[in-house]
């Protein structure tokens, strides 16, 4: 890394914006100059915490000293901010999804390509130490050729129904991460996807037009299979794990727990439950992805999760949504 200071702005001062801002200010050579949010109080509090200024979107993008922006605002703002930041020549980190529609996400990808700027999408699971270690061992050939991927992805509880109504649904909001895991781990693309789902935890979710449990089967171009099961309710914590079956064996990536202490008594053996939620489970991953983004910006290197990855994951999410709604397998372009 060089010693040049890069000025950065954060759009969004909510919980994920706070996480990204906190990780950004730890990067050598990064300076958080602006925080922007329609919630001015939240923006002021976050800016004050890190010695930044509060500014509106126009002011941020008009400032030639801003080299990069972090987009952590609501999903419905992502596409517009990506396009405007790209046109202004800023490097971009944006939380998933790129947008809730595939057409607009593709338009964002074209805007980024035309501007020639860096754009990284926040699929933080690729940066999780456990998942990354599995990927490294898989790439080294430890279990031979991968043949099947089984992903378990369960939240401890559903978000408010008001959020669900504007989230794009379980496939675009939750499983989009798992669709990215499928592409990353198997290094393959889908040719068909079949999804089914139910609403078992809260009737209000069904009334909002969504489901809270889903099962998805994907077939890849190479004939590999991926099964994903998800639920918005896991009483025991945030359940995030997967396994890869290969021609020579299997690799498993398990949950993280607060401690690894196991207690054994006359009547039971116990250990800590998994980390409670995504902010705890992916604490290290969030730090690692921002470090990776900032390093790529400073050194003009490629990012690990591109806007094209965001488009591909959204394509699978849209296909899964259609499969569930129409109760049929969706064939994808080969």
Automatic annotation (TrEMBL):
Gfo/Idh/MocA-like oxidoreductase C-terminal domain sequence ranges: 135-332
Single GO term (MF): nucleotide binding
GO cellular component: cytoplasm
Annotated Pfam families: GFO_IDH_MocA, GFO_IDH_MocA_C
Alphabetically ordered keywords of this record: Oxidoreductase
Example of a GO biological process term: NADPH regeneration
SUPFAM superfamilies xrefs: Glyceraldehyde-3-phosphate dehydrogenase-like, C-terminal domain, NAD(P)-binding Rossmann-fold domains
UniProt domain Gfo/Idh/MocA-like oxidoreductase N-terminal: residue ranges: 7-123
Gene3D superfamilies given in the database record: Dihydrodipicolinate Reductase, domain 2, NAD(P)-binding Rossmann-like Domain
The UniProt record lists the keyword Ribonucleoprotein: no
Entry similarity comment: Belongs to the Gfo/Idh/MocA family.
PANTHER family per UniProt: BINDING ROSSMANN FOLD OXIDOREDUCTASE, PUTATIVE (AFU_ORTHOLOGUE AFUA_2G10240)-RELATED, NAD(P)-BINDING ROSSMANN-FOLD SUPERFAMILY PROTEIN-RELATED
Record's protein name: Oxidoreductase, NAD-binding Rossmann fold family protein
Organism: Collimonas fungivorans
